[in-house]
Amino acid sequence: FKKYIDQVIINAETLANEIQKRDISVVSQGTDNHIVLLDLRSIGITGKQADLLVSDINITANKNTVPFDPESPFVTSGLRLGTAALTTRGFNNAAFIEVANVIADKLINPEDINIQNQCKERVKKLCDLYPLYI
Q: What is the pLDDT of residues 33-56, one digit of tens each?
C-alpha cells in the first residue's frame, strides 16, 4: 500500500507540474495529496465548461470552486482532477505527462474538433496500455 500511495502522490505532482507548464494555473502551485485543482481563470473558461470539455474526450473530472471564486457553485472557476483511479490501473509518471497534455490540449483548444478527435484517440491509447483488468 505504501508503494501505491507514494505513486499516487508522485503522479499528482507530475500532473500538476505538467499542467502548469501549459500556462494553466494550479491552486497552491501544486499538491500534497491525490487531488490537483486547476484555476481556469488563467485560460478564461469555467469549471462547468471544462468539465464538459474533458468529458467529451472520455476523461472524468469535476467542476470545483477555487479560493475567492467569483463564479457560483453551479458554474465554478475550477476543475478537480484525482490520480488514485489511474494509479490503480498502473499509470506512471510518463502516462501522467500524457494525461496532463491531453487535458491541456482540449482545454486550451475548446472549439477545435481535430484536437478533440486526437485527444480521444490519445485517451484510448492510454486506456489500452493500462487496462482495467489484466
A: 899 999 999 999 999 999 999 999
